[in-house]
Every structure is written in C-alpha cells, then in structure tokens.
Amino acid sequence: MLRRATFGGSKTQIDAVGNMNSSSAVDMLFDTVLPQPLPPIDLKTGQQWVYPGFQDGVNSNTFALVDQFLQWFLGQMMSPGIMDINTALAHAARERVVYFLHTHFTTIESKVNNVRSLYFQNQLFRLFATNNSVLPNGTSLDMRSLTVKVSIDNAMIRLLDGDTNVKGGVNGVNENYARELFELYTIGRGLEGVDLPTGLEPGDYVVYKEADIRQAAYTLSGWETAMTLEGVFDPLAPEQSVFGFDPDTLLPRGKVKGSAENASQHDNTVKTFSNRLGSVSITPDATLMPNGNPTEESAIDEITQLIDIIYAQPETARNICRRIYRFFVWAPHTRDEAQKVEETIDDMVATFEANNYKLIPVVKQLLKSKHFYETIDADPVDDANFGAIIKSPIDLTIGTLKFFDFTIPAMETDPSEFYRRTGRILETIGTRYQGMNFYEPFDVAGYEAYHQYPIYHRAWITPNTLGQRYSFTRGIIDGIGGGLSNENVFNTLDVRAFVETHFGGVASDAKLLIRTLADYLLPFSRNLTFDDASDDINSSLSSQRLNWFFAKMEMAESEWALYWPDPLEFAEVRTSLQRLLNAMLQSPEYQLS
C-alpha cells in the first residue's frame, strides 16, 4: 500500500502501518490535516521569491529557479524534516495525489517557460489533493471544479495556446486546449477497449463529435496568461495584484483579453453541441453582462457550463476512474485484461459520482478494497495486482532512499543541503540516467507510462534505463551515496549497521534474513521456501530464485551464523550483505511495485 499510495516507506514506517488495519491506515494517510509547504527558497537570496517576484541580478537565474522548483517538488515527496511517522506518511500521500494530478493535467516546462506559473499550478493541485470537502468560501474541492480552474490556469493557457484562441481570428479559434480537454482530461476519445462502430460519420467519436471541439473552443476563447516572473503577488490581498486571481483559491490565474468588464476577444454567441452531448446549448448569461458585453464573470460561467456538460456524460467519470485505477493499481495491457477490472471501475464510478466527483473518496475506496490486495481471478499467480506496475524513476529512487533511512532536511532549516540532496534525485531520475525528463514529457499527452496503450508503465524500461537503475541501487548499497558519482551526497550506508538495527532479530539466520528482507523489498513474498521439493505454485518466488539470492552471499549458513555476531568479522559480513542486497535490488522483482 505504501508503495502505491505514497512513495514507499522506511522499515519503521512500514511496521507502523503494518500494525493498522487497511481501513485505518488509509484514513490516516488521506484524512490527516496538513499545512501547506513553504514555497521554494532561492539559494542565492535565502528567501522564497514566487510571491514577491523575480528580481534580475538579485535572484538566481531562471534556469536555476526551474531546477529549484523541480527539486522542491521532489523533496515534498520525501516529507522533508517531518519526524512524526503518521504525519510524514500523510504528507507523502498528499504529494502522491499531487503527482497524479500532474500526470493527468500534464505540462511542459519549456513550453510554459514560466516557473512561477508552474509553481502556482502545483499549488492548485495540492489544494485539490486533500479530503477536505470545500475551500473556506464553500467552493467544492472536486475534479469538476478543478477542471474549470485548470482551464484558465496560466500554465495550461500557455501550454495549449489558449492565449491565441480569440473570436474571429485569422485562422479561426485555436482548438488545442478544447481538443485535449475532451481527449485527455475528461471524457476520452471513443469508448476504451471498444472499436468504433461502422457507419459513423467522419468526426463522430461516439461520446462526442469533432464539431463539439469547435463549440468548446468558442466557449474557451478570449483568455491570456496573466503571470510574469516579476511583480508582487500578495495572497492576503490578491485583488490588489496586477495579475489575474481566483477568489476561491486565492491563487493567480489567467485573465480575459480586454478587461474584466469587457472580455473583448471572447466569442459571445450561443454554442450548440451535438446529440452525443445531449444537443444542449451554452447561452451567455445576460445578468452577468450589465453593459451587454461579455465579462470575465460571464466567460467563466460559460466554461463552468461546458465542464458541467462534459461531466454529465457517463463516460467522463469512467475515463477518469480508469486513469486513477491505472495509476494506483495496474494498467491492463489487453482488452481481456481490461474487462476483468470493469466491475471495480463500476464501483469507483459510483463513488466518484456520489461524492460530487471528489478524487480522494475514490482513491480511499480503491486502497481499502479487497480487489487492491488480491488477484483479479482464481489463478494465484496470473494477473496478480502485487508487482503489477513497473516503478517510475521517482518511485524507484525515492522508495529506495526512504527504505534505507536516507532523509531530506527541511528546506527552511538547511536549504543548501535540501537542494544538494534533491538535486541528486533530480539527476538520478533524469533522461541521462533513468529516463524521466521531469516536467518535460515528450508531448502534451504526458509521460507515456501513464497514457500510452498498451505499453503504459513498461515505457520506463529500456536496456539503458534498466542498467542505470541497477547502477543507482548499487551506489546506495556500496556506499557512494547515490550511484552517479563518488560524491557522497547522502550519508554512506553501513549495511551491517542497517541490518542490525532493523533486522537484528533474524540476522544470524541467513535464509530467514533473506525471506524477511523479501517481505519488505519485493512485492512477492508469499509462502517463500528454499526447498525445491516443497516449492509450488503458491510461492511468490521460486526456490531457485531464493537460493540464487543466498548464493550471492558467498557464505555457508553455518559460517554466516558464526560471522554475524563476531566484531572481528564485521567487514566480511558487510561485504556479504552488500552482495546480497545488490542481488535483491538489481533483480527484476525490485523494479516492480
């Protein structure tokens, strides 16, 4: 559960959650009230800059500020400086949901080209990544409301060219965001796992039509980004800012072209949608246009109507719930596999709709479900949910660091060390090593692992990235602090001391130690045996596999039992443990969640 709901945990954290039932554990993860993290500190000034604004010659250059933002977000995933176990895990669970929303409403840093906009988008996701019902002013914290806000978010406007979507443009309205709103963020194109029926007219995708994209683009017209690197944004008085602001979230947002009283580039005609969307129309609300001109308020009202129309379609909830399922459980690679989980998707959809499209109740139900902890058919080996997802570079890196007790200091108390360590994480997951260009996916659909049928998470593995994963874990175990260089960014791991601290009760028995380590490190640990004669289909790992791990220790059982407690043999024991842990962490099984 911690591998899927957070980013893994230390042995101490795993044991603490292991003493709870699944319902209590999930409630703890998602119902704990948490403060918002402080904004990124600029190393050059020692102060945060996203609210007061960038000052040329005072702040770090923009390239450094982008890296600091990415490192700051990665750092949040490790619950920096939080000592209480429950709070640290709840913090990581929230960041897991923020990360999910980032993979859903993806963005590309080089296209947005404004790190301040990226930060505020990240904060917007964080507001909606909690189990709170409403914001202080009563705004519902649900996916439908979030979709409205994302539609006029500065980063999204820039990413999908919303600022060129104007009425009567030379080339017509810009449909980029409208198209992705349908295809990627809400209803999805066509019915997943089902061929389009024959005889459809061109542009008919069963759940909507091409003409609906054009009508949506008209509805979304007339907005522009309203965020520069410079200039103060005061969250206590956002209405005094030169930027657009959202009175619900008190975060910046885009603004209409023209003025709030005259949205001069918004198409103010009636928008009529196809029969696939119920043949409904969006009519500008005259009460929101006192002078007869479209206003910012009336333009937002039209967008809200559009999102309501889309969410009224049954396939929208199903498409989003499938995305949630693939992120937290596994991604079916064939239509037959997808059909096996449709009953679970049905349950998720019912919860999603009953809770007004709130995300967290669906996640909680899924993580508490019998389905999450079991296989999806009668075969105890085939199609198991355990080990069904290949870890992302973030999951592999942060999960490994957390398990072996590597920590990140709080940014506000030691920003230099915070960025030094998170910089190593950013480098480790990157394209040069494990292949994830964080905040720079290949296209607007996002990271392939979260959307590309049928490979999904298999996209993380290539011959090069697999070798780099092994290099990273070897660097951790062999004590060079990260696996990328000899620079010891993280403290050197003493594997013998680690095993003594956390597994001392079983450490003198080599085979029992291996089985116990497998419980924590590998997703497969049921009915493990080293005995070939008693090995059967109910064992998660073959006896040959376990004996291979044991052989890597290069020490007989009796010899190990003598060497383990002997201080004169600590060096030999340490070497043997390094061989064992390298074998386990460089195994295919360890790449799975």
Summarize the structure.
This protein has 593 residues and is mainly alpha-helical.
What does this structure look like?
This protein has 593 residues and is mainly alpha-helical. 45% of the residues lie in helices and 3% in strands. The protein has helices at residues 2-5, 11-18, 22-31, 62-76, 85-104, 109-112, 115-127, 143-151, 154-159, 176-185, 210-219, 296-311, 314-328, 335-340, 342-354, 359-368, 370-373, 393-403, 415-429, 463-477, 495-503, 510-521, 543-552, 557-563, 570-585, and strands spanning 41-42, 47-48, 223-224, 244-245, 252-253, 255-256, 258-259, 262-263, 271-272, 281-282. Strands 1-2 form a two-stranded antiparallel ribbon. Strands 3-6 form a two-stranded antiparallel sheet. The longest helix has 20 residues, at 85-104.
